[in-house]
């Protein structure tokens, strides 16, 4: 039994550089011991971004319309990880695996707005392939507001439901994981 997995994590200014270093594999010393450096050359970008900070600042300069400066603790972006379990990916051809990540990115672009998605990188150098995608919670009217995208846990549950609906169009064997409201499980980082 395999599940389609989507996890979101808000990022403030002080988290962005470290996130990009991890996603781009721009250091030799990884804190994640699951990274196999001999496979890093298999990683690839669906949306390339030279500098998350620079891209975020450019987008804010162009599209942020609020007449006051951003809070120091503002959520500038959200990192979304899309994956499933290793057994699921082991059964897929490389074309099917690519389709999984392309459809996951497409889902994110539909949800957050294509203009808000600034990066998407597939990692194949860890135990299970996965996609790291980064989007800015910038509303159409120029506000930076995560709560306009996801305000309650029910919004997140609904988003997970919609992601599952999209993915089973292409991968019928995937199941929707049980909601933490039903299982009472807590996410551990």
Short description:
This protein has 189 residues and is an alpha+beta fold. The chain is 37% helix and 19% strand.
What's the layout of helices and strands?
Layout: E1 2-3, E2 5-11, H1 13-24, E3 44-47, H2 52-63, E4 77-83, H3 86-91, H4 94-112, E5 117-123, E6 130-135, H5 153-168, E7 174-175, H6 180-183
Parallel strand pairs: 1-7
Antiparallel strand pairs: 2-4, 3-5, 4-6, 5-6
Search tags:
single chain, 189 residues, alpha+beta, 5-stranded antiparallel sheet, two-stranded parallel ribbon, 6 helices
Spatial shape: globular
**What does the radius of gyration come to?**
17 Å
Poorly predicted tracts of residues: none
Report mean pLDDT, rounded to a whole number: 91
Explain this structure to me?
This protein is α+β, with helices and mostly antiparallel strands and 189 residues long. It has 6 helices and 7 strands; from the N terminus they run E-E-H-E-H-E-H-H-E-E-H-E-H. The protein has helices spanning 13-24, 52-63, 86-91, 94-112, 153-168, 180-183; strands spanning 2-3, 5-11, 44-47, 77-83, 117-123, 130-135, 174-175. The chain has a 5-stranded antiparallel beta sheet, sandwiched between helices.
């Amino acid at each position: 039994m395999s599940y389609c997995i989507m996890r979101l994590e808000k990022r403030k200014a002080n988290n962005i550089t470290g996130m990009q270093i991890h996603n781009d594999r721009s250091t030799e010393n990884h804190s994640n011991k699951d990274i196999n450096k001999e496979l890093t050359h298999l990683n690839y970008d669906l949306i390339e971004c030279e500098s998350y900070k620079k891209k975020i600042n450019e987008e804010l300069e162009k599209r942020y319309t609020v007449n006051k400066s951003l809070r120091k603790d503002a959520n500038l972006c959200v990192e979304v990880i899309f994956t499933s379990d290793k057994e699921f990916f082991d059964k897929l051809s490389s074309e099917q695996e690519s389709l999984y990540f392309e459809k996951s990115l497409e889902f994110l672009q539909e949800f957050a707005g294509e203009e808000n998605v600034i990066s998407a990188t597939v990692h194949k150098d860890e135990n299970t392939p996965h996609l790291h995608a980064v989007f800015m919670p910038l509303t159409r009217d120029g506000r930076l507001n995560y709560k306009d995208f996801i305000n309650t846990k029910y919004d997140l549950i609904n988003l997970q439901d919609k992601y599952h609906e999209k993915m089973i169009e292409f991968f019928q064997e995937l199941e929707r994981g049980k909601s933490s409201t039903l299982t009472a499980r807590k996410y551990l980082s």
